[in-house]
Task: structure prediction
Amino acid sequence: MSTNISPMRHVRGFDVARPFSIGMLVIIMMPLVFLPLASIFIFGTSKGLTSFWAALTASEAIFALKLSMATSFWATMFNVIFGLFAAYVLSRYNFWGRNALIVTISLPTAIPTAVAGFALLLLWGPYGTLGRFLAPQGVQIMFTAGAIILANIFVTFPLAFGVIKPVFDTMSRSLEEASATIGATRWQTFWHVTLPSLRGAIVSGALLTFARAVGEFGSTILVSGNLAGRTQTAPLYIFAKFNEGQIEAANAIAIVLALFSFLIFSVLFFARDWLDVE
Amino acid sequence: MRKSIFNRGGFLAIGLLLLALLAGSCLPKLPAESGGANITLYGFSIMKESLEKSIYPGFSAKWKTEHGVDVRFTSSFAGSETVTNQILQGVNAEIAILSIERDAERLRQGGFVTSDWHAFPNKGIINKTPFVILVRQGNPKGIHDFPDLAKPGVRLIHPDPVSSGGAQWSVLAIYGSELVKSEKQTGEPDQSHALQTLRAIWHNVISTPGSAREARTQFETGFGDALVTYELEGLLMKQSGTPVEIIVPQATIFSEHPAVVIDRNVSAAKRPIVDAFMQYLWSEESQRGFVKYHFYSITNNALSEENKEFGHIDLPFTIDYFGGWGKAYPQVIERIFRDQVQRRK
Result:
């Protein structure tokens, strides 16, 4: 029998690298991801389900969750539509400053969220560069739900755009050109030819944006005024409860947010077959 | 062949998701404001319990019987400096209760407070509490006074003096306590010894959270061996069953907390109820409420004696020992603490 190790060994027969690498993957993810997630669930329900439910149904908690959902929804709507528009323009047209514009759109992710919030305050706050002209008119954007939406738009700005633009870039123009040759208007071409190819990117971009917006904290805490029952989003609520020492209440809402994100990414994952275009 | 965008199953799923999102897209209703008055109060972190459980209900009941109108309170609590910064940035606070008078001064300089809070009873101070050391049950590290915090192996949680008023009181408590003790012994306050003690203690600080309340939460979740904080925090912790012991230092400072009206944000229509609330803070009912939540009364020492849990302090002092915040801040917090302790860690 040959004492050489066959060079084909790694594709036939028992390959030790397989269980080893899978094992390593799980082991590495344990302390970094699995265990922190698990500890939220374990701690949140440690005082029993009645206390968990009470924490969940507190009126301020429900308000915080609803506010998070609503503000994230509107920020997502705006960023998806704008992302679509920006991806179209920046992919189809070439002009001086195009690359700079693309980079600028991606900037918000590099900026610490607290800086983003602070910048918005400096601009729109009642003593801010623009805000000081609006304040005497009674228009006050900061410290309202509108401010939260603005902050969410800023920090999630490039997400939908970043998912949609590559699809535009790699899209074959021939179908659009064919559509134009048979007399379709620009809008008809967009709606019937271009858009269907983008639906996967639009949906995943929207879900990404939404999930990110729901979890946003650093900018929201600055621009919202953090008033419980008025302008406090779910992440702010968790933070406030933690500071008050009500760890169980904080955990209950943290579990809700964690489950929600899990749901969103599951939809993304399992619907990918439907989303993919042949 | 290209899939139709109207593929049944996927369409249904996305449709449902959209419906759910649309349902959630309506901004939640703010609490109904019709037919009632609302006061917006921003307070420093440890004010929460006494205000929400005792002062607000007391005042609402009183106002309702006198004027037949419901009063609601909107509050936000954070470290004293943070609260001040929020107000300076334009949050719509009508009343602010702060930990240190310096923050009230900052609001005055920013033009937000135009009336003089010293005109109120007790120069605008609504309550006070001494600074103590909290340790784990059984006092395993054997801490009996501030200098013991400098022992090797002691891990101290101390809020950040930049954002927390309580942290500044704590620094003054530690530094001042050494001055007072040395003065009692030799007739002269020993500044270099006080500085050395402060430095040695700061060496043991393992965490500087943003407010006194945050520091307490960290300590409660098992972090650190000791915490220098308002006595009331320790009493509240004991009340909720946390296994802590309160170590009362021989000499310590009484922190005094001012309440101010943010004149810029109070409309003429709201003025009467805001002023009434301010006056209420010094009423016996309110002071009793503060004592119940472990603050010392500022108006009547007899009321403070009703709280049997307060520790006895041999050598108490106040900010006046330093000549007021006007001197204490630049001389102690800036020149001594920031320049000689924090930076040389």
Notes: Chain A touches chain B at residues 62-63, 66-67, 69-71, 73-74, 121, 125-127, 131, 140, 142-143, 145, 195-196, 199, 203, 210, 225-230, 242-245, 247, 267, 271, 274-275, 277-278 (CB under 8 Å). Chain A has a mean pLDDT of 85. Chain A has two domains: 15-44, 48-275.
